[in-house]
Amino acid sequence: MSEPLLSVDGLVVRYGPIEAVKGITLKLRAGEITALVGANGAGKSTTLMALSGLVPKAAGKVVFDGQDISRQSAHRIVASGLVQVAEGRATLTTLTVRENLELGAYTRAITAAERERDIEQVFAMFPRLKERASGLAGNLSGGEQQMLAIGRALMAKPRVLLLDEPSMGLAPIIVQDIFRTLRDINAQGITILLVEQNVRQALKIAHHGYVLETGALVLEGSGRELLDDPRVQAAYLGV
């Protein structure tokens, strides 16, 4: 079996005396969707922020495509191809949709024509954004802001996309659209690490999954295996 594209070994994150992530180890294989699921407060978002360089790691090693990125700065991690879509979208509400997308490419040395080509690719994936391109991001609906956040991340040309709760606060029909889009993105060859409280939806599209409880990994398996696991069904699926 080939080496994982991203491996995390013994990751520990502390907030003062509180150990929010307790020495977890996980692997992402190239071209796969990996789901990290669990209850609110389990440490899922903290894990993503640690991988992105947004919070310090107390211990552990992160290797991306053979390179140790454990101590790299956040902008260098983005430039290397590991890009996060933050919880709550984090769109720049006083800028236009187009300006948000342009900023997504800030780590790349590209021409204006190349940037425009990439924006048109995002618009092809999210036609609604093209309709709203000159409008302020703050005037978008929640679903449209999630589309913009994903589109902005794609402007960085990620090899691995980290998604933090993309379905949060969205209507069920929009959630279905977002998960279909994640499948499409993955079909283009982009590896995905998906953090999500909607356990059923996440595991349905995941090749592999991990269950996190109070900062510790307690279960691992294929998406189907975890969906069928009585412990997951009892704790997260209401079965």
Q: Features of this protein?
A:
38% helix, 6-stranded mixed β-sheet, Rossmann fold, 10 strands, alpha/beta, 239 residues, 26% strand, globular
Structural notes for this entry:
This protein is α/β, with parallel strands linked by helices. The protein has a single domain (6-236), classed as P-loop containing nucleotide triphosphate hydrolases (Rossmann fold), CATH 3.40.50. Helix content is 38%, strand content 26%. The protein contains 10 helices and 10 strands. It has helices spanning 44-51, 74-80, 97-104, 112-125, 127-131, 142-154, 172-187, 199-205, 223-228, 230-236; strands spanning 6-15, 18-28, 33-37, 59-64, 67-68, 82-85, 160-164, 191-196, 208-213, 216-222. A hairpin with a 2-residue loop joins strand 1 and strand 2 (18-28). Helix 3 (97-104) packs parallel to helix 6 (142-154). The model has no long low-confidence stretch (mean pLDDT 94).
Q: Summed up, what is this model?
A:
The chain has 239 residues and is an alpha/beta fold. The chain is 38% helix and 26% strand.
Total number of helices: 10
Number of domains: 1
Morphology call: globular
Strand order of the largest sheet: 6-7-8-3-9-10
Q: Count the beta strands.
A: 10
Low-confidence segments, given as residue ranges, are none
Strand coverage percent: 25-35%
Topology of this structure?
Blueprint: E1 6-15, E2 18-28, E3 33-37, H1 44-51, E4 59-64, E5 67-68, H2 74-80, E6 82-85, H3 97-104, H4 112-125, H5 127-131, H6 142-154, E7 160-164, H7 172-187, E8 191-196, H8 199-205, E9 208-213, E10 216-222, H9 223-228, H10 230-236
Parallel strand pairs: 3-8, 3-9, 6-7, 7-8
Antiparallel strand pairs: 1-2, 1-4, 4-5, 9-10
